[in-house]
Amino acid sequence: MSEEDNITGNGSSLLEVEELKMHFPVRGGLFSRQVGAVRAVDGVSLSIGKGETLGLVGESGCGKSTLGKAIVRLLKPTAGSVSFKGHDITHMGQRALRPLRQDFQMVFQDPAESLDARMSVGELVAEPMVIQRMGDRQQRRERVAELLDRVGLPRSASQKYSFEFSGGQRQRIGIARALAVNPDLLVLDEPVSALDVSVQSQVLNLLMELQRELGLSYLFIAHDLAVVKHVSDRIAVMYLGKIVEMSGADELYRDPHHAYTEALINAIPVSDPSQRRDHEPLEGEVPSPINPPPGCAFGHRVSAPGYKESIEMDIRLKEIAPGHWVSNCPCCVGQQSAGGNIES
Amino acid sequence: MRNEDPDKVAEGRNHGEPEPEKGELLRVRDLVSAFDTDKGQVRAVDGISFELEKGRTLGVVGESGCGKTVTAMSIVDLLPKPSGQILDGSICFNGDELVGADKERMQGLRGNEIGVIFQEPMTALNPVHRIGRQITEALKLHHEMESRQALQKAVELLELVGIPAPERRVIEYPHQLSGGMRQRVMIAIALCCEPDLLIADEPTTALDVTVQAQILNLISRMQDELGMAVMLITHDLGVIAEQCDEVVVMYAGRIVERAAAEELFANPRHAYTRGLLASIPRLESERKSELPTIPGQVAAIQDFVEGCRFCQRMEREGALTEIRPAYEEVSPGHFLERCPECAK
């Protein structure tokens, strides 16, 4: 991405990701040589401003969780760069990275799996502060009580174990733990997908409230488009390791340009039986990222008429309106019926 | 083949007024299913009644632990033994009483007259057997088909459920298929004996929205072709709105409300139903606005009160939580648990 193409939501950006690639080697043969690569994230550029939520949507296997992990440096990117508050963290070693980790934390999908069952809730929430050498024991204990209040759990919870809590409460513990070190950015990887609807809305309200009060920035990764739209300022749509469209949340739903975005929106069930539609669903599935088809991967899936043209092209995001970026793929953009089955 | 009865198909997709008695396929009366646990016997399903007409789709919606799956398992006698058992009530299928029916009768019923598909196809399919063998098993068992003939039928079924290159897929193993393809295989197995009733327990919960739309579309198509009734268990109100004729709302082991889908969404009477409908983020709702929530959480199963369990969640006391509210028909086809507080 060149200088003038800098993809920024607003002026002061906290996180800048440029041309990020995360490939995993595939080994095989007699000497376990590398025979290929899973291109989980294949050239992604984005930025998140202070106090902003960027929603990241896409189907399973599109690389959205890998992207989240690469951003918080739980993975070492293959190429490209991640900078946080102006520091390039792409190639930092774990030791150099540790003090910076205070500023960005991650919340995982399944709190039952991401919280150590042998630690009390108090220990779980205090652990990030211990690692960051924040305060003494007494100060940490006070801070834990404060955090539990903040996420709506009783203070008595700190003596209990995570498995004694329901799914929604466990996710609150996960959020309290992430907030312990006063981060600026939270990467939320499917934070409400494992929760029941009535609990889901409680956790979403908590996240929005925390953002307002603490000025947090979120990268909100989810597959539920209605949820993502509700909490996000801007949304990026990912397909097979690449962002195909990114724009303001309302605009994306009002005026989607990429055929894949349109197909995703059309697939959401509408909670109103009187508006039942008789739509033909999108055919096919996300192809394997091991040997992705050349050119536009989505055009290939739906056998779009213009697919052949895309093979020779350098497909990248172009800004078609202020803040609205769409891949310049000839087969999926600008043709209403590019998706084949998508109603125009 | 049993399905060549033309009346059945015609009557099946009648979306108008249900024809009483004549078309009734399943009648559940005062069903109580319980489990023995180390905290004593708990009633996961506590006195529920409903009917399902031939060819129609009944949605069962509620949060985890509300007894949706236990209801389904009770119908096909698959409660885990010896801890789970039906304590009381009756399940009448096609005029036969299933509660207390002998093992041979139930074996002849499962997979033959009643097909079942589960949420996670990878755990329901046997990983060491080829796809073909898993489909032909039921055909050989229930219809005493020859291997060659059964395999031919398996290929036809895979083609019917939209699996490309079916003759190659029958010799593959489950791990070689994607999640959506595995769920199609499950549907093929469930449909191979052309059942009168398909019980689908969260069939699309593990799938992406686009694949979910494909699978739901497939189930409707199969329903049209075979004239079968479907009991669709889900926590997703959007899926209910798109698929179902009638809806049962379960809370803490009981049915709190039941009505035709359009009636339920347009005129929900129980506070729990209203809360559920309000708490889902919708595409048209204002971004970042506070979502309505249902306060509190479902009580643990061993703590369920005899009275209104939603009042228990609301921390109300006295007669409300002591006396079980009557479950009555409040307008034609609209049934309600008439708690004086929750169903005004």
Walk me through this protein's architecture.
- The complex is a heterodimer of chains A (344) and B (344).
- Chain A has 344 residues and is of the alpha/beta class.
- Chain A has a single domain (3-103, 183-327), classed as Rossmann fold (3-Layer(aba) Sandwich).
- Chain A is built from 12 helices and 12 strands.
- Chain A has helices at residues 64-71, 94-101, 111-114, 121-131, 137-150, 167-179, 197-214, 225-231, 249-254, 259-267, 297-301, 307-311, and strands at 13-28, 33-49, 53-57, 79-84, 87-88, 104-107, 185-189, 217-221, 234-239, 242-248, 317-321, 324-327.
- In chain A, strands 6-7-8-3-9-10-12-11 form an 8-stranded mixed sheet, sandwiched between helices. In chain A, strands 2-1-4-5 form a 4-stranded antiparallel sheet.
- Residues 1-10 and 336-344 of chain A have low confidence and may be disordered.
- Chain B is 35% helix and 24% strand.
- Chain B has helices at 6-12, 68-75, 103-109, 121-124, 131-143, 147-160, 166-169, 179-191, 209-226, 237-243, 261-266, 271-279, 309-313, 319-322, and strands at 24-37, 40-53, 57-61, 84-93, 96-97, 114-117, 197-201, 229-234, 246-251, 254-260, 327-331, 334-337.
- Chain B has 344 residues and is an alpha/beta fold.
- In chain B, the strands form 2 sheets. Chain B has an 8-stranded mixed sheet with strand order 6-7-8-3-9-10-12-11, sandwiched between helices. Chain B has a 4-stranded antiparallel sheet with strand order 2-1-4-5.
- In chain B, a hairpin with a 2-residue loop joins β9 and β10 (254-260).
- Chain B contains 14 helices and 12 strands.
- At the A-B interface, α6, α7, α8, α9 and α10 of A face α8, α9, α10, α11 and α12 of B.
